Amino acid sequence: MDKSIVAEAVKKYHIVPTKIKLLGGFDNNVFECIGMKGFFILKFYDTSKYSSTSIKVELDWIRHLQDFGLTVTAPIPSIQGNLIETVWGKSEAKYDVVAYEKANGKLVNDTNPTEWNDELFYLWGKTMGQMHQAAKNFQLPDDTFQPLQWNKEEIVVNPPEEVGNTVLLRWNEYIGEMEQLPKDAHSYGFIHHDLHQQNFYVDDSKFVLFDFGDGVYHWFANDIAISLYHAIQSLRVKDPENRKEFAITFLASFLKGYRKENELEEKWLLKVPFFVQYRQIYSYVYFLKYLTCEVINNEKTSFILQHMKEHIEAGIPYVNISTNDIK
């Protein structure tokens, strides 16, 4: 990210200029800072990708979850008392900036079985169940509600041509099938849309949630599938049977915790394999849409993308689980 953009944002918060550290994020847009009241997180939202409306909804959603009893990283006002500030870079890039509390706890180590285990998966599911229960009474005005529908996402409306005809055909098949799915308050609502193991901390057996920037109205079953999809990525051995065995184990504990907080009809739980495969195509399309040419042409990234493309074109399931595997 352009250093001039970060420097401009620093002026709007009580930040020690020499105490800024890049943490990462999809666009290298998340920084840890030290201010007058300790550590906090500064996140930059590219306005060509995120609308100010979606950011305001994200902040409303965070407050709603907080009121509902979940542990989240709350936004911090700027010097002027604003929760959202806007900065411009030298290249005319425009960013909205939000400061957040620094989360307590730490990332889970998905290579350590004392941390990455059934107990964690149960807690993960329980936390998502709480979020979906909270979503049932999260209300937005109609003019805000409509643009945040899943089928209004930029990659759904304007997928990149680079995905190729075969992938685009499969992408449109999934889109078409979802267009026919019913919606009601018990199965469809505002979801995190990216609750993987890099987007929460564990603090004394409690989940601390952050990074709500991809929130959208979607089916709750898709939110479950997204967590499963990314949990599978923890596997160091990628053979199909290994994936399947892990997926069944993960879902058994995850859904046990989920059902403690929210009830989802069996017909929707049985859609999880469908949404897992959709997530693989979604991820591929998303990468081609938003990764820079430099990153895409990186040897490692290029290999991963080619592998994803081949599997999508061949119709190879990301994980070969059936409805009989979901208990």
How would you describe what is shown here?
- This protein is α+β, with helices and mostly antiparallel strands and 327 residues long.
- It is built from 12 helices and 10 strands.
- The chain has helices at residues 3-10, 52-67, 118-135, 142-145, 154-157, 165-179, 220-232, 240-261, 266-269, 272-290, 293-296, 299-314, and strands at 15-24, 30-35, 38-46, 75-76, 85-88, 94-101, 188-191, 200-202, 207-209, 216-219.
- Strands 1, 2, 3, 4, 5 and 6 form a 6-stranded antiparallel sheet that branches.
- Strand 1 (15-24) and strand 2 form a beta hairpin.
- The radius of gyration is 20 Å and the shape is globular.
- The protein starts with a helix and ends in a 13-residue tail after the last helix.
- The model has no long low-confidence stretch (mean pLDDT 92).
Task: List the main descriptive attributes of the protein structure presented here.
327 residues, alpha+beta, six-stranded antiparallel beta sheet, 44% helix, globular
In short:
The protein has 327 residues and is of the alpha+beta class. 44% of the residues lie in helices and 16% in strands.
Helix content: 40-55%
| Backbone shape | globular
Helix and strand content put the structural class at alpha+beta
Taking pLDDT < 50 over at least 5 consecutive residues as the criterion, the unreliable ranges are none
Question: Number of DSSP strands?
Answer: 10
Strand content: 15-25%
What is the typical, i.e. mean, pLDDT? Answer: 92
Largest β sheet strand count, sense and barrel closure: 6 strands, antiparallel
Following the backbone from N to C, one meets helices and strands in this order, namely HEEEHEEEHHHHEEEEHHHHHH
